[in-house]
């Protein structure tokens, strides 16, 4: 690279940012690739992963890039479009042989839907990764096992999933007759001379320290390689950046036609004209007057960013490893974006022009559709571990206030159900169905409005009260029997005894379910196979029969309670207590059903 003043400035900027990143964050190493027109800069800092004596080398040191793997996958998908093997708006079912979709909705799923994360699948965590590379499955098996439920018509709402990219990888394989990894190696890596990039699980080069095996220090291995399985170097990714910024050609080798590159970078989907949407597999981001198409990625111990400014002929790739890899990566990304796409933060503060048109309908809590639209037992995992809900209220002066995870933002309405941030370049959109406000879209993040009883905090207190009430029967009735026998008191009526046995069985189903879950988790952990969270065994669904039988017993107990009141059986105190115990059990089973923890699920 010629040592021009501008390039030297860029090198200095990257060096300084990388030094700050490694000093201020717990990160062991990072690597950077920057393309600016004809100029290319690649740099490495720190040491290779778990290899403190091996410096980062831009041509050799492998990094895991997580979801930035999808950039390669969507590039390969555009290749088969460019070669007229697939039409983006045609049903992918016409080409897929490994997977059959249920015909839940009339509209078919297309490659365009997959590339814009709008196919209508629920989010799925299981099957995405394994702790040991020997359990990584062939892609066809991975995408055809536990196929996500179709929860909405395609094209209706964005919902980011790994499955969309994994399925695209299988589509490439079924269309071309090659394994996904083989097609990418032959059609992407070889033409671009990306000789050190691979989708192989756990390549030994990832940990170059002598005597250290990858499986000994890495416990996350992608089971959906097209979505998160790429290992690469900054030198290789610099060539991918160049291909995207130079009309599909690098050093005379053509990867895509110029038309296909333009197609890949244009907007394919947006929920509203004021909101940044999706290019072909890449996210749009507006920064001042600049438009980026980008993708981030992260797996345990690694964080990555891939960004293009197509109109400016510039692009960047940054990846770091370490406990605070995300912060280190972002330090360098922010410095580069401030150079290539600076944002003027001194803009005038917007003021509301009266109360929002439908203010009374907007307030409430909105939860990510990853949770609300999940039809499996993973719903609870998403609800507890992923994403904070958004609370919405309208201030007296007409400002819309949103609170999420301790952060507060203010918005003004610019048209019905569309709001702009008071100070930042951001847009909030509310969506309605049948005249009722049902969803909030914060960019491409979709949230569904939930009722008061659906709030985790409310459900937590309700569960505590219900559990204590139910346990007064489960524990109190046997204790009362023992006390009467000790004192020689009169036994309760036989109808009361039968009723209590039925109600007690229902209540007991819940702690028994917990014990069975713990036992299964321990048993699975001791087996030679994937973990319960990564890939539940096929028989795991049988576990949910336990609470389902308890729910059936509780339904029977409701019948006993109703009969006791109608016939005035037992004493008044006995009827009241029995009814309270049954009500507590009913509430607990309602909560289990809400979180899809019964064998029969409603979604």
From TrEMBL:
Which ranges carry the Beta-lactamase-related domain? 15-328
UniProt superkingdom: Archaea
Which keywords label this protein? Membrane, Transmembrane, Transmembrane helix
Q: Which Gene3D superfamilies match?
A: DD-peptidase/beta-lactamase superfamily (3.40.710.10)
Asked if the Swiss-Prot or TrEMBL record annotates the protein with the keyword Transmembrane helix, the reply is yes
Q: Where are the transmembrane segments?
A: 460-480, 501-526, 538-560, 572-592
What the entry lists under Pfam families is as follows: Beta-lactamase (PF00144)
Known PANTHER family for this protein?
A: BETA-LACTAMASE-RELATED DOMAIN-CONTAINING PROTEIN, D-ALANYL-D-ALANINE-CARBOXYPEPTIDASE/ENDOPEPTIDASE AMPH
Q: What is this protein called?
A: Beta-lactamase family protein
- Which species is listed as the source? Natrinema salsiterrestre
Species lineage: Archaea, Methanobacteriati, Methanobacteriota, Stenosarchaea group, Halobacteria
């Amino acid at each position: 690279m010629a040592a021009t003043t501008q390039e030297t400035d860029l090198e200095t900027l990257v060096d300084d940012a990388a030094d700050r990143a490694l000093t201020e964050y717990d990160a062991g190493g990072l690597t950077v690739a920057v393309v600016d027109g004809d100029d290319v800069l690649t740099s490495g800092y720190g040491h290779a992963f778990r290899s403190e004596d091996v410096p980062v080398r831009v041509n050799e040191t492998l990094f895991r890039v997580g979801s930035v793997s999808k950039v390669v996958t969507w590039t390969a998908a555009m290749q088969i479009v460019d070669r007229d093997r697939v039409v983006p708006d045609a049903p992918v079912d016409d080409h897929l042989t490994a997977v059959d979709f249920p015909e839940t909705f009339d509209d078919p799923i297309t490659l365009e839907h997959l590339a814009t994360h709008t196919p209508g699948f629920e989010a799925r965590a299981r099957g995405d990764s394994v702790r040991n590379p020997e359990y990584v499955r062939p892609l066809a098996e991975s995408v055809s096992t536990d196929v996500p439920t179709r929860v909405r018509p395609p094209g209706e709402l964005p919902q980011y999933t790994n499955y969309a990219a994994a399925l695209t990888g299988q589509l490439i394989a079924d269309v071309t007759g090659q394994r996904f990894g083989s097609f990418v190696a032959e059609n992407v890596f070889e033409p671009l001379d990306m000789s050190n990039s691979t989708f192989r699980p756990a390549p030994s080069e990832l940990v170059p320290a002598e005597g250290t095996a990858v499986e000994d220090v890495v416990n996350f291995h992608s089971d959906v390689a097209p979505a998160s399985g790429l290992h690469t170097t900054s030198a290789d990714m610099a060539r991918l950046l160049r291909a995207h910024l130079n009309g599909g050609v690098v050093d005379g080798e053509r990867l895509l036609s110029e038309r296909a590159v333009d197609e890949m970078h244009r907007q394919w989907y947006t929920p509203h004209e004021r909101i940044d949407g999706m290019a072909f597999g890449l996210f749009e981001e507006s920064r001042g007057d600049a438009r980026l198409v980008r993708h981030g990625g992260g797996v345990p111990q690694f964080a990555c960013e891939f960004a293009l400014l197509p109109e400016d002929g510039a692009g960047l790739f940054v990846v770091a490893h370490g406990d605070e890899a995300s912060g280190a990566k972002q330090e360098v990304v922010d410095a580069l974006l401030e150079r290539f796409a600076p944002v003027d933060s001194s803009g005038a503060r917007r003021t509301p022009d009266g109360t929002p048109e439908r203010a009374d309908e907007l307030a409430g809590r909105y939860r990510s559709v990853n949770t609300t639209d999940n039809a499996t037992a993973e719903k609870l995992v998403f609800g507890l571990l992923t994403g904070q809900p958004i609370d919405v209220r309208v201030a007296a002066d007409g400002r819309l206030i949103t609170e999420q995870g301790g952060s507060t933002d203010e918005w003004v309405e610019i048209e019905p159900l569309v709001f702009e941030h008071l100070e930042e370049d951001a847009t909030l959109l509310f969506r309605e169905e049948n005249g009722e406000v049902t969803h909030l879209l914060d960019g491409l993040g979709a949230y569904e409005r939930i009722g008061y009883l659906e709030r985790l905090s409310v459900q937590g207190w309700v569960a505590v009260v219900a559990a204590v009430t139910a346990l007064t029967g489960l524990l109190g009735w046997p204790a009362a029997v023992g006390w009467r026998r000790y004192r020689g008191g009169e036994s309760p009526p036989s109808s009361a005894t039968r009723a209590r046995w039925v109600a007690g069985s229902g209540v007991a189903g819940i702690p028994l379910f917990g014990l069975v879950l713990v036992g299964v988790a321990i048993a699975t952990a001791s087996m030679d196979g994937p973990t319960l969270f990564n890939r539940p065994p096929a028989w795991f669904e049988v576990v949910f029969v336990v609470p389902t039988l308890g729910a059936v017993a509780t339904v029977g107990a409701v019948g006993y309670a109703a009969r006791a009141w109608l016939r005035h059986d037992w004493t008044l105190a006995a009827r009241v207590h029995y009814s309270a115990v049954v009500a507590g059990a009913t509430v607990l089973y309602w909560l289990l059903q809400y979180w899809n923890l019964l064998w029969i699920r409603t979604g």
